[in-house]
Write a structure and sequence with these properties.
By secondary structure, the protein is mostly helical. The chain is built from five helices and no strands.
């Protein structure tokens, strides 16, 4: 998943597109625990990428989430 694909997914979950940058922290982007859980669910059910919620919670930035998704998708 590219950054743009992740950004589009996060925006579809309700985040402001201007807040979703690679260097933004989860908090700066507006990605709270409820949205992280929803992101994990969407990634698993709609994209077939099983990223554990615990790993998403541990990712400090949007770029780190992008790397996690890529690792679990097998594209890295």
């Amino acid at each position: 998943m590219t950054f743009d694909e992740l950004k589009n997914l996060l925006v579809s979950l309700g985040l402001d597109p201007e807040d979703v940058t690679p260097e933004a922290s989860r908090e700066e982007a507006g990605l709270d625990s409820l949205l992280l859980t929803e992101l994990a669910l969407v990634l698993r059910k709609e994209r077939g990428v099983p990223v554990p919620e615990e790993e998403l919670y541990a990712a400090p930035t949007i770029a780190a989430i992008e790397r996690l998704v890529a690792v679990h998708a097998g594209t890295v």
